């Protein structure tokens, strides 16, 4: 598992300092802060005593380890060497950026070590590209994940500062932090009973057309019979036969982007987590799988009625948009408001 970092981070452009305390670990019981032991499910995924993968109270993050468990169990396709190199490349770039804001500042030796790692992964990716591998897509996906995690952390800082005016030092971790995360930063609620019709449950590829669901439980969807057969040894532990047709999960940013600017069939559901408004309303919005993109209001009022940090926005048949500054997400215009619901 991953424990929250203990270094202090200074918010760029301000004197605000955010610090995560070390977890209170009892090695004899594998507990955190005196809480009951972590537990695992039938696949082997780990959850804290609050039944969370990612918990601010326990100061643990099991998400990365659980993805590895899913791959080892055969529930997900194993990460390819290209994807692994892209993930490490993206992680190293993010680490170098974050180190600039750590207090005390990281040593020059630490900076140089990460610069060397970056060069090594760049060279690996160059060789993969020469061999004909799709390196560009792997890097994009890895950077999307790293950027979204950075935006999530910035959103936590913004919301903690907003709710505690005048305070300049904050401690991440604990019940208050979890409450802020749940209300303002956690992605929109999802139901396990719903099926994801546009992303393969095994290889994670996204499609613009509905995929074939498991005929027994009707939850996971697959690109083809090959993916379904590969996932079956692990999936059968969770597969419960039903005749009831499940409702479909709301769209993710990646599923909307796959339509290349054309309207996507379905409803995009995201949570506004960070305010970046200037001349018009612009918010970073997080989907159910944790990816963040911008939503900008190109309405007559330059606002989207009712949209504030912590609100959930649903847009029927959404369109993806690439902004001039290199960011991406959605541009909502006046005529789109009839298809937009904010709660």
Task: Please tell me about this protein's structure.
The chain is an alpha+beta fold and 343 residues long. The protein is 32% helix and 19% strand. The chain is built from seven helices and 20 strands. It has a seven-stranded mixed sheet with strand order 18-19-16-15-14-17-20. Strands 10-2-3-11 form a four-stranded mixed sheet, with helices on one face. The protein has a three-stranded antiparallel sheet with strand order 1-9-8. Strand 12 and strand 13 form a beta hairpin. Helix 2 runs antiparallel to helix 3 and helix 4 packs across helix 5. The chain is globular and about 55 Å long. The N terminus is likely disordered.
Structural class: alpha+beta
Order of helices and strands: EEEEEEEEEHHEHHEHEEHHEEEEEEE
* Uncertain runs: 1-6, 23-36
How many beta-strand runs?
20
- The side-by-side strand order for the widest beta sheet comes to 18-19-16-15-14-17-20
N- and C-termini, Cα separation: 34 Å
Shape: globular
- The helix count comes to 7
Give me the Rg, rounded. Answer: 21 Å
Strand content: 15-25%
The major β-sheet equals: 7 strands, mixed
Mean of residue pLDDT values: 90
Fraction of residues in helices?
25-40%
What layout of secondary structure does this protein have?
Elements (H helix, E strand, L loop, with lengths): L1 E2 L4 E3 L6 E3 L5 E2 L4 E2 L6 E2 L5 E2 L6 E2 L4 E2 L1 H11 L7 H19 L2 E2 L4 H23 L4 H29 L5 E3 L3 H11 L26 E2 L7 E2 L2 H11 L17 H5 L9 E9 L6 E5 L5 E7 L13 E5 L4 E2 L5 E6 L6 E3 L1
Parallel strand pairs: 3-11, 16-19
Antiparallel strand pairs: 1-9, 2-3, 2-10, 4-5, 6-7, 8-9, 12-13, 14-15, 14-17, 15-16, 17-20, 18-19
Helix pairs in contact: 2-3, 2-4, 4-5
């Amino acid at each position: 598992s991953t424990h929250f970092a203990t270094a202090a981070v200074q918010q760029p452009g301000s004197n605000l300092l955010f610090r995560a305390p070390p977890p209170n670990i009892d090695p004899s019981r594998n507990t955190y802060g005196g809480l009951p032991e972590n537990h695992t499910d039938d696949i082997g995924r780990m959850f804290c005593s609050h039944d969370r993968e990612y918990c601010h109270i326990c100061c643990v993050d099991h998400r990365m380890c659980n993805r590895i468990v899913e791959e080892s169990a055969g529930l997900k396709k194993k990460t390819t060497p290209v994807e692994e190199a892209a993930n490490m490349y993206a992680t190293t770039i993010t680490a170098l950026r974050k180190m600039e804001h750590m207090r005390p500042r990281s040593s020059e030796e630490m900076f140089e070590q990460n610069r060397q790692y970056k060069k090594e992964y760049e060279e690996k990716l160059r060789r993969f590209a020469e061999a004909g591998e799709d390196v560009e897509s792997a890097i994009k996906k890895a950077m999307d994940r790293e950027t979204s995690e950075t935006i999530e952390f910035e959103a936590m800082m913004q919301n903690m500062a907003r709710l505690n005016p005048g305070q300049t030092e904050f401690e991440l971790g604990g019940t208050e932090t979890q409450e802020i995360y749940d209300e303002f930063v956690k992605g929109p609620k999802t139901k396990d009973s719903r099926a994801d019709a546009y992303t393969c449950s095994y290889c994670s590829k996204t499609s613009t057309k509905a995929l074939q669901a498991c005929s027994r439980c009707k939850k996971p969807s697959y690109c083809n019979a090959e993916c379904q057969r590969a996932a079956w040894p692990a999936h059968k532990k969770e597969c419960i036969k039903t005749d009831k047709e499940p409702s479909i999960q709301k769209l993710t940013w990646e599923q909307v982007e796959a339509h290349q600017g054309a309207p996507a069939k379905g409803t995009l559901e995201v949570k506004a987590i960070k305010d970046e408004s200037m001349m018009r309303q612009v918010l970073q919005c997080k989907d159910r799988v944790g990816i963040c993109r911008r939503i900008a209001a190109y309405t007559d009022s330059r606002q989207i009625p009712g949209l504030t940090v912590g609100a959930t926005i649903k847009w029927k048949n959404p369109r993806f948009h690439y902004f001039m500054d290199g960011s991406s997400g959605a541009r909502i215009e006046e005529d789109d408001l009839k298809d937009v619901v904010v709660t």
